[in-house]
Design goal:
- The chain is an alpha+beta fold.
- It folds into three domains: about 1-120 and about 190-325, Up-down Bundle (Growth Hormone, Chain: A); about 120-185, no CATH class; about 345-600, MFS general substrate transporter like domains (Growth Hormone, Chain: A), CATH 1.20.1250.20.
- The chain is built from 19 helices and 15 strands.
- The chain has helices spanning about 1-10, 30-60, 65-80, 85-95, 95-115, 190-220, 230-260, 260-280, 295-335, 335-345, 345-370, 375-395, 400-410, 430-450, 455-480, 490-505, 510-515, 525-545, 560-595; strands at about 25, 30, 120-125, 130-140, 140-150, 150-160, 165, 175, 180-185, 410, 415, 420, 485-490, 550-555, 555.
- The strands form five sheets. A seven-stranded antiparallel β-sheet has the order 8-7-6-5-4-3-9, with no helix packed on it. Strands 1-2 form a two-stranded antiparallel ribbon. Strands 10-13 form a two-stranded parallel ribbon.
- Helix 1 packs parallel to helix 6 and helix 6 crosses helix 9.
- It is globular and about 80 Å long.
- The protein starts with a helix and ends in a 5-residue tail after the last helix.
């Protein structure tokens, strides 16, 4: 999502006429090749890390699904929020090129830090005032959890009603622990948890400097009105998907074969390559993305020092989200109401909710008094599209959290004799993007020539209905689950296919339309609101993943039927709600199109 936003938001600066005499690369300035490759390796690192992150938190540190969702949502929301500040600092002090190098270095160090994950957390199971160590025995995909009580080795078996039975070797239930009458957690090293959070903080701050600025440099390659600009960004965008496609295939494999450190190490290697491509560019990027004239080197140094000082701030927000995740989820289940729930959220969640709510209400109200009738209408449409964008990406971004857990626990991932790692299932999205993006580009052109291309609100509505249909397709697949309570991989791939088609309807046009609809004097502010909406979607996505949480012991579920039923319930709700919201948007799309006053 932020990839498209960054591409759309890049500025257009004078760079030369259409008949550019500079050395070319497939009809584009040769500098595009260096930027394409750099972005490919950066996304190689990020998506390789993302393919592992939720599973790493749940299976190495043995965090509950709720805590994992809290950390994951906070991290990804910060990743989408910090480009606001990184772009501003680059424009005023560092320049785009120096910002990219600085950000790449920070992200490289972050991925490298994740390699130092320490020993596996020690699981325990507590009930009736006693706490017992848990041992986990794994055989392929299957796992069994045991504890020692009164000198007997007892297996922990989850029951369909949520209770837990402790059984002996013969399968006889000796102790039954009612639902809610036990605690399953783990002892973990505070030192290595801190290393993990600090490493993620390096990625957050580094991404803020990298993402907006490499896209901005692409924009400077083309003069105002250069007909090649859209094609150049299309090539650049394909680099994003190529990098994510490759890393999401290999990183989970290395993590499976050698350990988590190997998967994160691969991400670090990719990011170091991205840094090296800019650091040692051989003069290919001279004159592009340079610091503003008159800015002293001391000022740039102070900005970098300030960025390093922001790493503890990111750590605090992540740590706060980790500590308060369980309390927020409990408040949601207790029916404390919206205000009670928001007050129980971690600090980052409270700030995002308050700022976004004020923006959504305040901006149209301001436009009503400050602008013309037409400007007010356009600003209302822009705000409405932003809100629907949040809904879409909240559901779409379940890929890295609840859908990955579903793949791990309730999906038969066998392909012939190959067992696909759970994190590798995220590969379907970039695979479908690479295959379908050119076709959709041709489709929109073909429909446009015949006056049949859907309006932007209609495309948004289709996207929302498709992301919901993806969940419902997967739910349909669960009706064919076998005695192992696992669904065929075909159904998960089908979900990604439908949701990717939805992405192709919404993503390429989202931010560009917001900028066209916004009043000229507040375009920059509306772009900021759009990035805020992206961060908001990521955070709410983490909350949705918490709703889909399943009780685990030693990092694994003890009853796959309960797990499957939980996912079916949540995915069914998500599917129908998304379809319903899409139908509602489709119904009001004629009004929105009218209020766009001819903007296409």
């Amino acid at each position: 999502m932020s990839d498209t936003a960054a591409v759309s938001a890049a500025p257009v600066l004078p760079a030369g006429p259409d008949d550019d005499t500079r050395p070319q690369w497939f009809g584009h300035p040769r500098q595009l090749a260096r930027l394409f490759t750099t972005e490919m390796w950066e996304r190689f690192g990020y998506y390789g890390m993302r393919a592992l992150l939720a599973l790493f938190l749940a299976e190495h540190f043995l965090f509950s699904d709720v805590t994992t969702g809290g950390i994951y949502g906070a991290f990804t929301s910060l990743v989408y929020l910090t480009p606001l500040f990184g772009g501003l600092l680059a424009d005023r002090y560092l320049g785009n090129k120096r910002s990219v190098k600085f950000g790449a270095l920070l992200m490289s160090l972050g991925y490298l830090g994740l390699c130092f994950n320490g020993p596996l957390a020690k699981p325990f199971f507590a009930f009736d005032g006693n706490r017992y160590e848990v041992t986990v025995e794994r055989s392929g995909e299957a796992s069994r959890q045991f504890l020692i009580a009164d000198g007997k080795k007892l297996e922990i078996k989850g029951q369909n009603d949520g209770s837990v039975a402790l059984t002996d070797d013969s399968g006889t239930s000796l102790i039954n622990v009612p639902k809610g009458g036990y605690e399953s957690s783990a002892e973990r090293s505070d030192f290595y948890v801190t290393i993990m959070l600090v490493s993620l903080s390096f990625v957050v701050i580094g991404n803020g400097f990298f993402k907006p600025n490499i896209s901005a440099i692409v924009g400077t390659l083309y003069a105002q009105g250069d007909s090649r600009r859209d094609g150049g960004f299309t090539i650049f965008y394909m680099g994003i998907n190529l990098g994510s496609l490759i890393s999401q295939f290999f990183a989970p494999l290395l993590a499976l074969w050698f350990g988590w450190w190997a998967g994160f190490g691969l991400a670090a290697v990719g990011m170091f390559i991205a840094w090296a491509l800019f650091q040692f560019d051989g003069g290919k990027l001279d004159g592009y993305g340079e610091p503003p004239a008159g800015v002293a080197k001391q000022s740039s140094l102070l900005v970098m020092v300030g960025a390093l000082a922001a790493i503890p701030v990111a750590w605090f927000l992540l740590q706060n989200s980790m500590v308060n995740a369980e309390a927020a989820a409990a408040a949601a289940k207790s029916g404390a109401g919206l205000l009670g729930y928001i007050s129980s959220l971690p600090l980052l969640g409270q700030v995002l909710f308050v700022i976004f709510t004020f923006a959504v209400i305040g901006i149209p109200a301001w436009a009503y008094f400050a602008g013309s009738r037409e400007e007010f209408h356009k600003m209302v449409v822009a705000t409405v599209l932003i809100v629907f964008t949040v809904v879409f990406w909240t559901l779409f971004e379940q890929a890295g959290s609840s859908l990955t857990f579903f793949a791990d626990r309730n999906t038969d991932r066998q392909i012939g004799g190959y067992l696909m790692p759970a994190g590798q299932t995220q590969i379907f999205n970039p695979l479908f993007i690479v295959a379908l993006a050119p076709l959709f580009s041709l489709l929109w052109v073909w429909l446009g020539k015949r006056g049949m291309e859907p309006s932007i609100p209609v495309k948004f509505a289709i996207a929302l209905m498709l992301v919901g249909a993806g969940f419902l397709f997967l739910v349909l697949g669960t009706t064919f689950a076998g005695d192992d309570f696992k669904v065929g991989l075909f159904w998960l791939a089908g979900l990604y296919l439908l949701q990717t088609i939805g992405e192709l309807c919404l993503s390429p046009v989202g931010l560009s339309m917001i900028t066209k609809l916004s009043m000229a004097r507040v375009v920059a502010m509306m772009m900021g609101v759009f990035f805020l909406a992206s961060a908001m979607a990521q955070y709410v996505g983490g909350m949705v993943a918490q709703v889909a949480s399943v009780e685990t012991v030693g990092g694994a579920v003890t009853n796959l039927k309960v797990s499957l039923d939980t996912y079916v319930g949540v995915f069914t709700q998500l599917g129908w709600v998304s379809v319903g919201i899409g139908v509602f948007l489709l119904a009001i799309s004629p009004l929105l199109k009218k209020w766009m006053h001819g903007v296409n």
